[in-house]
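Case study.
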Amino acid sequence: MSIESCPIVLTVNGETVIENVEPRTTLVDFLRDSLGLTGTRTGCEHGVCGTCTVRVDGTIVRGCLMLAVQCDGARVETIEGVSDTGEIADLQENFRLRNALQCGFCTPGILLTAQELLSRGGMPDREAIRLHLSGNYCRCTGYQAIIDAVETTARQRTGTNS
Amino acid sequence: MTITPDSPSVLTALDRPNSYIGRSVPRPNLRRLTEGRGSYVSDTVLPRMLHVVFVRSPHAHARIRAIDTLAASKAPGVVAAFVGADLTEVMSPWVGVLTHLKGLKSAPQYPLAMERACWQGEAVCAIVARTRALAEDAAALVDVDYEELPAVADAETALDPQTPVIHPELGDNLTFERRVNAGDPDQGMRDAAEIVEATFVFGRHTGVCNEARAIVADWNAAEQRLTVYQGTQAPHMMQNLFAKHLGIAEQQVRVITKDVGGSFGVKVHAYADEMATVAIAKLLRRPVKFVADRLESFLTDIHARDHRVHGKIGVKKDGTITVFEIDDLTGIGPYSVYPRTSGIEANQVVNLTGSWYRCPNYRALARVVFQNKNVMCQYRAVGHPIATAVTEGLVDLAAARIGMDPVEIRRRNLIPDDGYPATAPSGIKFEKLSQEAALQKIVTMMRYDDLRAEQERLRKQGVYRGIGMTTFVEVTNPSPTFYGIGGARISAQDGVTMRLDGAGTVFCHTGVSEQGQGTEAVIAQVAASAFGVPISSVRVIMGDTDNTPYGGGTWASRAAGIAGEAAWQAGKALRANVLALAATILQAQPQSLDLRDGIVVDAASSRERMGLDEIARIAHFRPDTLPPGFQPELVATRHYVPRAWPFAFTNGVQASYLEVDVDTGFVKLLRHWCVEDCGTIINPLLVDEQVRGGIVQGIGAALYEHCVYDERGQLLNGNMADYLVPMASEMPDMDIGHVVTPTADSELGAKGAGEAGTAGAPGAVMNAINDALRPLGAKTLTEMPFTPGLILRAIGRI
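After joint prediction, the assembly is written out as follows.
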């Protein structure tokens, strides 16, 4: 029941944020409801679908399985942040050209997950891309276009010919 | 990327100089969505907005003796609590029947359960609070006194005399029944050298949209107006329903639909909890938001399929099919869903089964029964996956019985491509299909003979691969025969309004809606092509009943074919208006001019005369320079509804190649092919991705997805950890090809493409699994989903 709030200080997309949150508030609810960062969304709310994926201290996490209070002192990045820095502009453009999204609801989580794989460098094969994205649910596309777009980005980044 | 090249375009009149039709233009809204800057209902926040959560029945069937909301009402942040009777003062109940489904019956349904809960998950009480979390806290304090009643769980026994009747006033648990007796089925049985029969079971599954159902309802008492932000496929239909059941005028209701996180047929129905949210907003005179959580979604989003079909096929030694016979039983939950009803799917199964084959002898019985489970209704490819899997499963069994190749038996029985128009034994009409061409094309694409050789070779090494195929048809571009004639106020037509603004760019308003399939792009492509401007000059407005032509929305693969034609006609009309204006300015004949890529040119020489921006400038800001009496018309609206045919049927073929691990029962999908014919292809990229997404949804039904209920009507796996959906690592690459047979009912010639993938995939996977296991003498598998356990039992390993 209701519940004392805890102060937390963290950086979100490079900005310092000072907020009071209830201990039970999940990271995804905090981002959406307190900060208005609605690019991060809830899908299954129990860690299965990957829709709420964000980066905490450089590692992707499920925003529904992490509490906001656990992010005290952390560096959180969301789709809005990585879009503005241009870090994944090439990946986003390849998603657009390949129609690798339909309703777009899962897309932020998928982009951040794919970027984790791509940032390791090297040229992952399709099987590796599929495996890396195996925790991200997309109901619309059937996945093939997503795999294509990630593969194309990997090729471009590594200078690998098709 | 491997995309099989399309057939050559057959476009003629559509092939204007700057045509976008047939081009893979990226969708204009995608950058926004890739940056997380979409606007979904679940993101919507309004001033003074409250959150509603629902207390739901834990029982499949129970009498509600009392509901105590006192403690909940006093909990922090709570504004109000409602039970069923509280909402009846503002909202009337509804009954999900249509008059053209003769005999279809259902009981009145209320926004909150009244004296009885009829399925596990039915909302019985609503708690409204400042935040969702506080509302959930308070909901846990509501004390409901239930008297559990016997639940009708099994459709097979729902009609037995000893089974309780869920709605006693209806007399029995039979919702709807349809029989067809066409040709001479008995003679067909006598003519057959072999009669093969099987029982096919299609497990219940559900849509699992990534964004759950979401609604924000805002009653402005001063304006006497309701604004509803809703993730829906049919804004005008919902406008009508909200008005009707609140007892207010349609004009007092505005429905706004922005981005929708997937729909697939889930979001085209009236849901009790959404109706309750609207009623509560009216009572509280402020905005109220409801977003289903994932557990609620499994319990309340419409479920689909849940059919048991006994099927029979008669076949001669030469492969001629002599008869099809089906007996379909389906359970739909305790209510027929409003307003489209839960009788449509069984009706489609009867309409479609065997329909694309020449065999004239057909006997069908479909019975639709009530049960105490979640409601069942139209979901992507309504009825098609069932009709296709039954038909094609039977055809494969017949082929195996007489020792004929599965491709060959289809070749011998398909309605020939020069055999149209044709009427199927059930009465459905085909304008023109291309089944023979599609079959030939897929055989080439997949290198059928090579695959058969590979399969044979690998079997000797103990590797069991299977090839499965389905031919199918798909209902698209529905005319008023789908819903309108049955009394549902669901518009069959759609309109497009194009208006030229002061900068020489155009706004294009339409009643169809975007769910991610690419309607916005398709409308922009057609409008830009017909009018004669760059696609970047077109802005499409949809999803707002105050600002779009009254229309049907997006369902039954209708948006491109119906609104696309309206956009084509509107673009032509606005071009004629603009050329009349240009001719006045240029002192030329309108017919000597054309508008191409935003520039008025001499039609014959393509010589540039003036830009559209200059024409717009004169029309809007200096009309004083025009001759007296000449009035430029800068807006054009055109509507379209299919008239010549009840539906524009499309057709196609799918094939699945897979490997069954006979030790684990796991199925590995190796490759999947689809050749389909949706007529004129407006955007090949979008069509192919619709087909691919649809195939994977069908694969989900075949291999993974199942709402498992126990005998007490309890859903046992209503969450995403236990209910399996297709994920990237299990899905195959899919090759898509096309045959192009435009419908002559419109100039554009486009038919729908949204459901072909889902229609054909489950049957193809089923046939492939059985093909893989045939050398092991396996029992034929006909019960979806084909889990490892079922497969191991079929080959006697467990």
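Observations recorded in class. The longest helix of chain B spans residues 559-586. Chain B has three domains: 30-38+499-630, 44-149+215-260+267-284, 303-480+644-794. We will return to this complex in the next lecture.
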